[in-house]
Write a structure and sequence with these properties.
The complex is a heterotrimer of chains A (322), B (505) and C (300). By secondary structure, chain A is an all-alpha fold. Chain A is 75% helix and 1% strand. In chain C, β1, α2 and β2 form a beta-alpha-beta unit. Chains in contact: A-B, A-C.
Chain lengths: 322, 505, 300
């Protein structure tokens, strides 16, 4: 190949990888032109806060999708986690245990990790397909959350328990910091740890990985545990934003997270995915929702536009792979 | 054969470039009625571009193709099919969950009153299957058929398409790659039969012995150009290999003077349902070949050793330490065994991942510091392996799926070199690998044995087994049929043991 | 490559076409109506009423809503975005009464007029709540019951969740109106589960064969009770009065299982929301609560 050939190949490769980012920047430019209120620090922070819980879920989803799997239970696990946390923290007269908020958070995170672990065991231990296993967990976690709370929101959370969704540190909302931190860590896990590399290898060819002498089960289970844990973390942000623990929380979050991961360039067949891409995917959807409301576009049109964007992203994805 | 008959297919000066890459740079060939033309060439020599151009999927930059003296329009798959260019690829185009009959008539089902006429379809399908000597119920699903029968179905389908176009050229792309010996015999019989009836055939294969058995003339492709054409009888194997690789390949198999060390793989009474008992000892520096027919238990022995099949009995020791089957491949790898599986694409490689990651797949834990992978070390180790194994890739970041078969195989081998171990199990190490890369893999095997590795190799290619192994264990129906070594290792002796002709003697 | 760029450009242009830049119509008042959802009969009616009022009043009205009725965080995000966009008025139906307190205060602090529709926030910081007076709705249902059965008859009540405020108000209204004229059994909850509503009704029928009429205070208990009446062969013999009009309940009415339905008026909620907001923006005083009334649907 000639030098110009190599160069054009490199440019092409860069464009392919950066396509979601280019689309995001184009959208930002478009909204900035169309709405004078769009491009302000305040509004951009708004978008980040609004996207942070989906962003956190999408970090775990990226890892799971890299294996060629899927986690449909994230929204329900979020609800289960915050209900467990909420019941731990609510005062006794509101039906809770009245524990300190740190205990509540710990219990919430543990609940998420356990649900994820159960997913992992169903998938790698009992050989269920990830779609089926997490579909079951989606219903089970929601059911347990409803049973625990009798279907009613758990009220009267201690003020400290809401910090992740409601307060800031040095002017930066905690939710943004948490998202940035965990997305960064997720990127390191995906790219620079055995777990991440094995996740991609599972998605690319699980049999080859097994025959290379790697025990698939524990690694895969660990990935689903992480997904559950991140759903619970997203739940704590969510809890702060809505100020009570609702068993109905998180319905449909799995679809937003999956869409973000796919927009970010991951393949649902597995083997490919990038944390930076996922962050861009989440941001793209957040910018769309925000910008469309700023432009007085009504809800029906918003649904349509977001659907079109997801499809365009998938078409881009196909172009990338050919 | 009448000299005056015009060729069924003639290709003149075909050229095709993809960007800066010249895939075809002047291909000339012709095939006559009642003739088998063997097409030879290393992977990447341009065979598949040529086939795709003929079938209308690529438009060439220059050149001309004539079918029975009529110019073939390019880039028109329908016109190619109508002209009678029919190709059977390695990967079949059959739908596994449809019946044989439905597959045969896919896209042109006979209709009656707006409904598919199943009765007629079955009737005609039975006739079509008879032509290829296949006596199975056309109502069976293709999924239930073995590879050999599925291929016969493909050929039956191809023949009916040839009939519709009034005869043309049938191309078979490595048709025997996945067949057992007796199945190969059936296929060859069919090809000869078709030739007798005047069919023009292009036959692609890497196996020298096979080409001699089936071909009339040969055209060799190298770097996208036809470099040599002529009757097969005029060219010996060395000449063909020279034409293919463009240089002398002194000998395919390296000279070895094995220096055997202590026993490293000790197998005592290894049994499994329908298998065994096998007892064998392999020493450091030794290459043991496993021969036998397909399904004789050669590959299964490797899988059992590797812990890939649970429920084995007996004793397996590696370097003196007992290896339990329930530990699975992970246990075998930990004990120092490595496996290069038969099916590279499905079992060996993460095709979408870079060369580097594939090389490191079995040794990632070596590169972890403080929980993080050290990319420097990973890249360095990958570069060393690429250099040592002469893996041809644009960089270690290139997805391994883009590499040729031979280079892919070297990556799988390199994975075990990166890990280092005591025993290497090779299952069909050169299947789908072109001659040049094959020689390099043989050289590498010799080197590894020299360095003290114990190698157990399964191969359907008898010359390969005899050329590389110090000892050969022949398997038959799941049992060891006999050992041979030294001068006693001949193709005839192996075949006698493998087919059981000695039992009565 | 170029093909993809074109697709991208086209979708961006499309975005530009459906959205209207604010700057070109700076003088027009902008009001957003935020429902609990975006689909469904009920919210379509709210939207229709609001849009119509917007046309009449010369106000630009947009309808927003979370993808599901339980997605409080999405509803909060919508309100945040609306505050950012600088709308003049917001009418919101809270997905959760408590979760929206904070964001409603934020909107008010930003100088935006806020009213609640259909249901209210717990802190009641908004200018006005526009919706059904649930006690009055209960009383209307009781008056229908009195038309259907003789004075002194026994009436059973099937409710959704005992703790829900709006249902409680409906039962209280019913009880007050029926006091001394009908004999009321203790209200039995089905916890929002239709199958449970069937069971509860069957149990009541067994324990109190003298029951002459069922009152169900929501759109889930009603069909449940109706199904139980029909399977026990009591349809038309024992009367059924229910809150709400849904396709389910309308069907029961047509088949003669239900006798009267007390319907809320979502279209009127949307309409009054816009008119009230416009008045408030113009600096006029507005009342704290506006009852949109109910409508009684009977068999023709």
């Amino acid at each position: 190949m000639t030098t110009t050939g190599v160069a054009s190949e490199m440019v092409r490769g860069w464009l392919q990888r950066s396509m979601p980012l280019v689309a995001l920047l184009l959208l930002v430019v478009l909204f900035s032109v169309l709405s004078p209120r769009f491009l302000s620090l305040e509004n951009l922070a708004n978008i980040a806060v609004q996207s942070s819980h989906i962003g956190l879920i999408a970090v775990g989803m990226t890892l799971v999708i890299a294996t060629g799997g899927i986690d449909l239970s994230v929204g329900s696990v979020l609800a289960l986690s915050i209900c467990a946390a909420g019941l731990a923290m609510a005062p006794p007269d509101a039906g809770g245990a009245g524990l300190d908020f740190a205990w509540g958070w710990g219990i919430g995170l543990l609940t998420g990790a356990l649900a994820g672990g159960l997913n992992g065991i169903l998938i790698s231990g009992l050989g269920l397909s990830p779609f089926i296993a997490t579909l079951g967990m989606m219903s089970i976690a929601r059911g347990v959350a409803n049973v625990m709370t009798d279907g009613m929101p758990v009220e009267d959370m201690p003020e400290a328990a809401l910090a992740l969704g409601a307060s800031s540190v040095a002017g930066v909302p905690w939710s943004i910091l948490l998202w940035a931190l965990l997305a960064g860590l997720g990127g390191v896990v995906l790219g620079r740890t055995r777990l991440g590399r094995y996740a991609c290898a599972m998605g690319s060819n699980e049999e080859a990985l097994r025959l290379a002498g790697v025990r698939i089960g524990p690694w895969k289970t660990a990935l689903y545990v992480l997904s559950g844990l991140l759903s619970a973390a997203a739940g704590l942000v969510f809890l702060g934003r809505v100020s009570n623990a609702q068993p109905t929380a998180g319905v449909g979050f799995e679809l937003d997270a999956i869409a973000a991961v796919v927009i970010g360039g991951a393949s649902l067949m597995g083997g490919r995915g990038s944390m930076a891409g996922t962050v861009v995917g989440v941001a793209l959807m957040g910018v769309l929702r925000n910008g469309l409301v700023l432009m007085d576009v009504s809800a029906f049109w918003q649904q349509l536009v977001i659907g079109v964007v997801v499809l365009v992203a998938v078409l881009l994805d196909r172009w990338r792979t050919t | 054969m009448t000299v005056a008959a015009p060729p069924v297919l003639s290709v003149r000066g075909l050229r095709k470039a993809f960007g800066a890459v010249r895939a075809l740079s002047g291909v000339d060939l012709e095939v006559r009625a009642g003739e088998v033309l063997v097409l030879l060439g290393e992977n990447g020599a341009g065979k598949s571009t040529l086939l795709k151009t003929l079938s209308g999927m690529h438009v060439p930059d220059a050149g001309e193709v004539r079918i029975r003296d009529k110019v073939l329009p390019f880039g028109n798959p329908a016109a190619s099919e109508a002209a009678g260019i029919v190709t059977i690829y390695q990967e079949f185009n059959l739908v596994p969950d449809l019946t044989i009959a439905e597959n045969l008539f896919l896209g042109q089902e006979p209709h009656r009153l707006g409904l598919v006429d199943h009765a007629r379809m079955r009737r005609e399908a039975t006739g079509m299957l008879q032509r290829v000597g296949l006596a199975v119920d056309p109502g069976r699903k293709v999924r239930e058929l073995g590879v050999a029968h599925a291929q016969l179905v493909e050929i039956a389908k191809a023949l009916s398409r040839l009939d519709r176009s009034g005869g043309g050229v049938l191309t078979l792309d490595e048709p025997t790659a996945a067949l057992a010996d007796h199945e190969i015999a059936v296929l060859h019989g069919l090809v000869r039969d078709l030739r007798q009836r005047g069919q023009a055939i292009i036959y692609i294969s890497h196996r020298m012995a096979e080409l001699r058995a089936i071909g009339d003339r040969v055209t060799v492709l190298r770097d996208g150009a036809s470099v040599c054409s002529g009757p097969l009888s005029d060219l010996d194997d060395d000449a063909l290999i020279r034409a293919m690789v463009g240089r002398d390949v002194a000998t395919l198999y390296p000279d070895r003077t094995p220096s055997l060390g202590e026993p490293v793989l000790e197998v005592v009474d290894l049994v499994a349902p329908g298998f065994g008992p096998v007892t064998m000892t392999v020493r450091r520096g030794e290459i043991v070949g496993l021969a036998g027919l397909m399904g004789s238990g050669r590959s299964r022995l490797l899988r059992l050793l590797y812990g890939d099949e649970s429920g084995r009995g007996g004793n397996v020791r590696v370097a003196g330490r007992e290896l339990q089957a329930r530990q699975g491949p992970a246990g075998a790898v930990a004990a120092g065994i490595g496996l290069v599986p038969e099916d590279r694409k499905n079992e060996g490689l993460a095709l979408g991942m870079p060369v580097r990651d594939n090389l490191a797949l079995a040794s990632l834990e070596r590169h972890v510091r403080a929980g993080l992978l050290q990319s420097e070390g990973l890249s360095q180790s990958a570069k060393n392996l690429v250099e040592r194994l002469r893996i041809r890739c644009s960089s270690i970041d290139q997805p391994v799926g883009r590499l040729s078969g031979g280079n892919q195989q070297k990556v799988v081998l390199g994975r075990w070199l990166a890990r280092g171990g005591a025993v290497l199990l090779l299952d069909e190490p050169t299947r789908g690998v072109d001659v040049g890369a094959r020689a390099e893999i043989y050289r590498l095997m010799a080197e590894l044995a020299q360095e003290g590795l114990a190698i157990v190799m399964v191969s359907s290619d008898l010359p390969e087994v005899l050329g590389m192994a110090d000892r050969v264990l022949v398997m038959r129906e799941g049992r060891p049929a006999g050992w041979m070594a030294g001068d006693a290792m001949t193709q005839e002796a192996v075949m006698r043991l493998a087919t059981g002709q000695e039992v009565g003697a | 490559m170029f093909r993809i760029t074109r697709v991208l450009l086209a979708s961006l242009l499309f975005l530009g076409a459906v959205g209207t830049p604010i700057s070109s119509e700076a003088r027009e008042l902008r009001i957003a109506v935020v429902g609990k959802g975006i689909g469904g009969e009920y919210w379509s009616a709210v939207r229709k009423g609001a849009t119509k009022a917007g046309r009449d009043e010369g106000v630009k009205v947009t309808y927003q809503g979370p993808p599901t009725e339980t997605d409080v965080s999405a509803q909060i995000a919508i309100l945040e975005n609306l505050i950012q966009s600088g709308v003049d008025g917001i009418a919101v139906s809270p997905c959760n009464a408590r979760s929206l307190n904070r964001i409603v205060r934020r909107a008010l602090a930003a100088g935006i007029k806020v009213v609640t529709i259909d249901s209210d926030t717990t802190d009641k910081d908004r200018l006005c709540y526009i919706g059904t007076d649930n006690a009055e709705a209960g009383a209307v249902a009781a008056r229908q019951a009195l038309r259907l059965v003789r004075p002194g008859s026994t009436v059973a009540i099937v409710t959704g969740v005992l703790g829900a405020q709006n249902l409680q108000q409906r039962r209280e209204g019913f009880t007050r109106e029926a006091a001394g004229r009908l004999k009321l059994l203790e209200a039995q909850p089905d916890n929002g589960d239709k199958a449970r509503a069937v069971e509860v009704t069957e149990n009541i029928l067994t324990a109190h064969p003298e029951v002459a009429l069922f009152f169900t205070d929501n759109a889930i208990s009603g069909p449940g009770a109706g199904q139980a009446l029909r399977s026990r062969g009591k349809a038309g013999k024992i009367r059924l009065v229910s809150m709400d009009v849904t396709p389910d309940l309308q069907g029961l009415l047509n088949q003669g299982v239900a006798d009267a339905l007390v319907a809320q008026r979502p279209e009127r909620m949307g309409e009054l929301a816009v008119r009230t907001l416009k008045a408030a923006i113009a600096g006029k005083a507005v009342s704290k609560v506006i009852d949109t009334g109910v409508e009684v649907v009977r068999r023709k």
